[in-house]
């Protein structure tokens, strides 16, 4: 080794000094966030409640972190660190409670933590409808619900809830879904004859299971966390679940990333009660009902095409009350405050029987 190379000791001294500076800067930042809270509070009228969480500002901060990043840490790692710093700063302004589709350890909880960071209180709900109700009633600040999976398609319960719920979409999160085969301390790994999981996870790991455990019974349960909980008392059972469930229940991974499609991902929506201003890169979601006549969908989509607005999702659901033939769930790029989106929405409102605006929100950053 040449003499000019730094020693372990000098490198660690440098790291210690840098840590001290980073810590000081983070606390300076936190103190600014506290002052922001005071400014927000002071700007309120009598009886009005300040809104501390600003999704559009957080999206802008994270996008800037990624744009200016020059490594060696990659953009995503750097943004995740800032995600946690902002989460801790926001908790100083107001500790937030986030309702999600539980139980503890589900992918929806992982999505909530990916979006809000770890300095929030996550509240597990038994059903998707309950998540909506918690937000509507003000018992939770925000809610997180799954909306579509790249392998298994849309989550119909979520779409149906949007038709009657009084909430606003204020964000989206995408999560890569990795499944693992998990066992407990008492499991005899060579004798696995029963595997617990949620029906969707079995569907997402079908080929792997056929190849590795063709004879094991596949027992569907209400969630992957439930699977992780149940198998612990059985010496010949395993569970398929994700990382968070493995951690919570202290399980060992026998096989990792066993999903058949390596790009398996789920999209989640964040619901709240306030409208979100534009972040510069936004999406808008609406529900539209049209009379059942030839060319209805064509007629509905034409204004988007003419305005050059990019559609990101179109789902069709039969109307459940019998009065309308179809409900279309449409996501498109742009914020409802921009001229082009305002014009398109006006046009759509003229054509449709009914339009419900679900909200404009920043495109997922992480
Ligand atoms: C500090 C603010 O409040 C919150 C905290 C943020 C942060 O730590 O950067 C950003 C947006 C808000 O969710 C703000 O609105 O600027």
TrEMBL record:
<feature type="coiled-coil region">
    <location>
        <begin position="8"/>
        <end position="35"/>
    </location>
</feature>
<keyword id="KW-0456">Lyase</keyword>
<dbReference type="GO" id="GO:0004106">
    <property type="term" value="F:chorismate mutase activity"/>
</dbReference>
<feature type="domain" description="Chorismate mutase">
    <location>
        <begin position="2"/>
        <end position="97"/>
    </location>
</feature>
<dbReference type="InterPro" id="IPR002912">
    <property type="entry name" value="ACT_dom"/>
</dbReference>
<keyword id="KW-0413">Isomerase</keyword>
<dbReference type="InterPro" id="IPR018528">
    <property type="entry name" value="Preph_deHydtase_CS"/>
</dbReference>
<keyword id="KW-0963">Cytoplasm</keyword>
<keyword id="KW-0028">Amino-acid biosynthesis</keyword>
<keyword id="KW-0175">Coiled coil</keyword>
<feature type="site" description="Essential for prephenate dehydratase activity">
    <location>
        <position position="266"/>
    </location>
</feature>
<keyword id="KW-0511">Multifunctional enzyme</keyword>
<protein>
    <recommendedName>
        <fullName>Bifunctional chorismate mutase/prephenate dehydratase</fullName>
        <ecNumber>4.2.1.51</ecNumber>
        <ecNumber>5.4.99.5</ecNumber>
    </recommendedName>
</protein>
<feature type="domain" description="ACT">
    <location>
        <begin position="285"/>
        <end position="362"/>
    </location>
</feature>
<dbReference type="InterPro" id="IPR036979">
    <property type="entry name" value="CM_dom_sf"/>
</dbReference>
<dbReference type="GO" id="GO:0009094">
    <property type="term" value="P:L-phenylalanine biosynthetic process"/>
</dbReference>
<dbReference type="Pfam" id="PF01842">
    <property type="entry name" value="ACT"/>
</dbReference>
<dbReference type="GO" id="GO:0046417">
    <property type="term" value="P:chorismate metabolic process"/>
</dbReference>
<keyword id="KW-0057">Aromatic amino acid biosynthesis</keyword>
<dbReference type="InterPro" id="IPR045865">
    <property type="entry name" value="ACT-like_dom_sf"/>
</dbReference>
<dbReference type="GO" id="GO:0004664">
    <property type="term" value="F:prephenate dehydratase activity"/>
</dbReference>
<comment type="pathway">
    <text>Metabolic intermediate biosynthesis; prephenate biosynthesis; prephenate from chorismate: step 1/1.</text>
</comment>
<comment type="pathway">
    <text>Amino-acid biosynthesis; L-phenylalanine biosynthesis; phenylpyruvate from prephenate: step 1/1.</text>
</comment>
<dbReference type="InterPro" id="IPR010957">
    <property type="entry name" value="G/b/e-P-prot_chorismate_mutase"/>
</dbReference>
<dbReference type="Pfam" id="PF01817">
    <property type="entry name" value="CM_2"/>
</dbReference>
<comment type="function">
    <text>Catalyzes the Claisen rearrangement of chorismate to prephenate and the decarboxylation/dehydration of prephenate to phenylpyruvate.</text>
</comment>
<feature type="domain" description="Prephenate dehydratase">
    <location>
        <begin position="97"/>
        <end position="273"/>
    </location>
</feature>
<dbReference type="Pfam" id="PF00800">
    <property type="entry name" value="PDT"/>
</dbReference>
<dbReference type="InterPro" id="IPR008242">
    <property type="entry name" value="Chor_mutase/pphenate_deHydtase"/>
</dbReference>
<dbReference type="GO" id="GO:0005737">
    <property type="term" value="C:cytoplasm"/>
</dbReference>
<dbReference type="InterPro" id="IPR036263">
    <property type="entry name" value="Chorismate_II_sf"/>
</dbReference>
<dbReference type="InterPro" id="IPR001086">
    <property type="entry name" value="Preph_deHydtase"/>
</dbReference>
<dbReference type="InterPro" id="IPR002701">
    <property type="entry name" value="CM_II_prokaryot"/>
</dbReference>
<keyword id="KW-0584">Phenylalanine biosynthesis</keyword>
